[in-house]
Design goal:
By secondary structure, this protein is mainly alpha-helical. The protein folds into two domains: 88 residues; 36 residues. It contains three helices and no strands. Helix 1 packs across helix 2. The chain is rod-shaped, with a radius of gyration of 44 Å.
């Protein structure tokens, strides 16, 4: 019977030790968790701030691109209208420039295709 009392006493002592150790580990975990919360909060706030800055930059870039696109469209319209006026005012000159440009382009294509003589292009003997 004495052994049973000793065994029960040892078991109770062991259980108290396990409970004490378990409580200490739980306290350490809670302490580490409490200490990590401010760091995690700060990292989270920094990440949110970074994302907000990136989004603001992307919006600014999109606005700039849109504005430049509008400016280019207006410039294209001005150049088109100016070209139309020149062609209306000087139709023969426009035709001459077009023919000369086409001839130069054809000569360039002929040379890149292996032809090398101006005479062969204009079929001059």
């Amino acid at each position: 019977m004495n052994k049973t009392v000793e065994t029960n006493s040892a078991k109770k002592t062991f259980d108290r030790g396990v409970d004490s150790a378990s409580g200490s580990v739980h306290k350490a975990i809670d302490s580490a968790s409490d200490a990590a919360v401010p760091a995690i909060k700060k990292a989270s706030d920094t990440a949110h701030s970074t994302v907000d800055s990136m989004a603001k930059g992307a919006h600014n870039a999109a606005d700039s691109v849109s504005e430049k696109g509008t400016q280019l469209h207006h410039l294209q319209q001005q150049l088109t209208e100016g070209t139309r006026k020149q062609i209306r005012n000087h139709p023969l000159l426009a035709l001459g420039v077009a023919v000369a440009g086409g001839a130069l382009f054809a000569m360039w294509l002929n040379r890149t295709a292996g032809g090398s003589s101006l005479k062969s292009y204009f079929m001059i003997n």
